[in-house]
Amino acid sequence: MKKMVTVFGAVALVGISAVAADALAEKAKKAGLKPIPESKSELYKLIDNPKNPITDAKVELGKKLYFDPRLSKSGLVSCNFCHNLATGGVDGVDAATGHKWTANPHHLNSPTVYNAVFAQKQFWDGRSPDLEDQAQGPIQAAPEMAATKEHVEKVINTIPAYVKEFKKAYDNPKMKPTFKDVADVIAIFERTLVTPSRFDKYLAGCDKALSKEEKEGLKVFIDKGCVTCHNGVALGGSMQPFPAVGKYKYANVGDFKGDKNGMVKVPTLRNILETRPYFHNGAVWTIEEAIKIMGETQLGVKISDAEAKKIKAFFGSLTGKKPYVRFPMLPASTDKTPKPDLK
Length: 343
Prior knowledge:
The protein is mostly helical. It has helices spanning 10-30, 40-47, 56-67, 79-82, 131-140, 149-157, 160-169, 179-191, 198-203, 212-223, 287-299, 305-316, and strands spanning 239-241, 263-265. The longest helix has 21 residues, at 10-30.
């Protein structure tokens, strides 16, 4: 907080502004909004997996496999196909599309992989407890990568360079990589895909990190009750009923109803301006409409065009710095590596 002095009133006004801004930041934190830690040690407390600790070797190997389409039945679809790191961690289409150009049968949209580590559960219905478990799903799903565990294991174990990297990463000279090992290192790579933004700096005490318009939007965001579901480090990631109090106007797009209790995973708002279309079924293409729908369905309040515009301005502060990811050069297949199967 800046010390207030009186010099023709000018500096005093700056001081008052700083006090107000500090009050808003404190209000945000009391509402449950949390920053991505600046300290690596503190960040790792949130993103590391004690059962499979993050190491540079695992991250590098996981990155290669994240981009390797040979894990799929067709030899064309990689993890990055639906979770493109160059486009906000999503594919930019309303329904995830994979093997044989098949759209998700429930018309489910691909959620962003960026900051997914901060979510309490994975998948729209929350059926996976962590990224390691989640990574196994799309590889085997028929409309996605359509592979079997046996196919994946054969791909890896017929490419000597991959076997060598697994042995090195796990310090196990006798290791024969399994399907689970492949999913685990992909998840380790995904755990590092966090994107700190100006909003984190603001919560950490840098008043100038947000513009006046963004602060106004943050205030509206809090006052309207959006923080009820969009809180924590991810500004989302918990399981909540959807719709809660009002009808969702696009409920007829797809047949997804949530888990057995009608609960749906709350998407992260980090990088939200880069991850359209919105909602589980990708039915909404403008963030302003998405904001107003959330007011109607989840909060039972009307959000005006002006208020939606302010909240959108705040969302701009959530666009984070992406980790530098150099596209990997993948090891060559061998005569024993499974051939692509487009059927």
